[in-house]
């Protein structure tokens, strides 16, 4: 019995020592930052703002690697199945938490496939309508939509995107019945919205803000807990229609499950330093981020809350479920 106990303790110590040695060598080559979307979107822009300073803090180049497709599941799956050595990191988004309610077959178990590193930031959405809309306020908009159930439509860049999820949550809580129209990307949906072919969109704020300021779209409300400094004259949904309502698009960093804790902590420390760097922070705020950061444990808790949140909404809203 004593020998067995000594063997177990020895194995644990050797494992801890191996992990420590691996972490001491890390990183000795470039790190891939996987963006599960095409270039130019907010996820890609965020990654390209963060990568240089993150690489500087880690002492190795951090390369942004775009892997779009499959409602972001190509990129998600690549990281879930990558070696757990810290050299492949995912820029995770709201879609990671929502995809389990939108797809029957996901080739990994979201709650177990990843090791959390850090939340990066959250970005509010804004409810926008075309200039031709008769609705000037959110109250007028709700009344207009509820007067003709099922006749109004809303656009999104696809199932599981932030504008889709924000709209579904809002529709459920207000009792609005509207048709969901999906597009291949955010640019096309905004073009059709401006032309009046779409009734409304919950756009991420950085995408809509230039069009709002140029009077090509009308902003009715933002989805944050407080008014956005980027649109200070636009009220929140919470203050005008639904108390306690909030929706944020979020971005965080994850590694494959099993990545040594010492490496996770090393990357987390580098992320924290990068987010606190004035130039990086200013650039992120400019595109609409409310910077968060925090511990790996906080990132893990955030992902769990998001998974639970969308699973609960799916009990009340009939989402289109794909294979």
Write a concise synopsis of the structure shown.
By secondary structure, the chain is an alpha/beta fold. The chain has helices at 2-25, 42-58, 73-80, 94-102, 110-113, 138-147, 162-174, 186-194, 205-213, 237-240, 261-276, 278-286, 296-313, and strands at residues 31-35, 62-66, 88-93, 114-129, 153-156, 179-182, 201-204, 218-222, 248-256, 290-293.
Architecture overview:
By secondary structure, the protein is an alpha/beta fold. It has 2 domains: 25-122 and 250-313, 3-Layer(aba) Sandwich (D-Maltodextrin-Binding Protein, domain 2), CATH 3.40.190.150; 124-240, D-Maltodextrin-Binding Protein, domain 2, CATH 3.40.190.10. Helix content is 46%, strand content 19%. The chain has 13 helices and 10 strands. Strands 1, 2, 3, 4, 7, 8, 9 and 10 form an 8-stranded mixed beta sheet that branches. The chain has a two-stranded parallel sheet with strand order 5-6. Helix 4 (94-102) packs parallel to helix 13. The N and C termini lie far apart (52 Å). The mean pLDDT is 91.
